[in-house]
Amino acid sequence: MINIKDNLALIEQQISQSCQQANRTKETVELLAVSKTKPAALIEQAYRCGQRAFGESYVQEAVDKIARLKHLADICWHFIGPIQSNKTRPIAENFSWVHSVDRVKIAQRLNEGRSGQDTPLNVCLQVNISGEASKSGVTVADLPQLAEATANCPYLRLRGLMAIPEKSAPLSSYSKMLELFTRLQQQYPEFDTLSMGMSGDLQPAIANGSTMVRIGSAIFGSREQ
Ligand SMILES: *Cc1c(COP(=O)(O)O)cnc(C)c1O
């Protein structure tokens, strides 16, 4: 049996500890509970424990769960998966945040999809920091251009960067992300989010400035492949 309450408490404690080691206050790191493949009932349990931000990776699955959980006031949905260009509209219409924007065309299509809504869509740009092995993410070289194009979209709010350093990635991947983040922060006033760190690498992520950790299996248990 999964005890979501205990798991959340344990993760909060690990976040606290990592913050303390890094000389940061706990309030500077937000916990995103990654609920992909997990049923709506487990999400609701986490919500009852006080968790508000949830991350999903698969559009159809997410849209179904979002509809089922409409009664949960102030729940906040983040899309963190790869984005196909024919899926941008349901993402723009159903989520508050998207972490995985990695090309101009996707930013523009999300912007169009968001135009009917009252609030802009919060966007993080996914950076391919570990190099060629993973396909997702903008290259460091193309990042400035993507940031500029996103900032120019009226229905998007450019909030920061996201990365998934590979398991074998050197620690320098984390500090490189912090460096990119800090540099762009000077240019974009609303840049306040560095989305980095998962169940297995929360500590190095927080040591290197992460402001949002995306935790799945440590809260909801392992996923079926
Ligand atoms: C699945 C996923 C996570 C959560 O991974 P865990 O190892 O289960 O914590 C975080 N970020 C992204 C982008 C994911 O797809």
Automatic annotation (TrEMBL):
UniProt keywords (A-Z) are:
Pyridoxal phosphate
- Give the signal sequence positions: none
Record PTM N6-(pyridoxal phosphate)lysine, positions in chain: 36
Cross-referenced NCBIfam families: YggS family pyridoxal phosphate-dependent enzyme
Q: What does this protein do?
A: Pyridoxal 5'-phosphate (PLP)-binding protein, which is involved in PLP homeostasis.
> What is the designated name of this protein?
Pyridoxal phosphate homeostasis protein
CDD domains according to UniProt:
PLPDE_III_Yggs_like (cd06824)
Q: Which Pfam families match?
A: Ala_racemase_N (PF01168)
Tell me the superkingdom of the source.
Answer: Bacteria
Give the family this protein belongs to, as stated in its UniProt record: Belongs to the pyridoxal phosphate-binding protein YggS/PROSC family.
Q: Which SUPFAM superfamilies match?
A: PLP-binding barrel (SSF51419)
Domain annotation Alanine racemase N-terminal: ranges: 19-223
Matches recorded under PANTHER family: PROLINE SYNTHETASE CO-TRANSCRIBED BACTERIAL HOMOLOG PROTEIN, PYRIDOXAL PHOSPHATE HOMEOSTASIS PROTEIN
Query: Per its UniProt record, what InterPro entries does this chain match?
Result: Ala_racemase_N, PLP-binding_barrel, PyrdxlP_homeostasis
Matching PROSITE patterns: UPF0001 (PS01211)
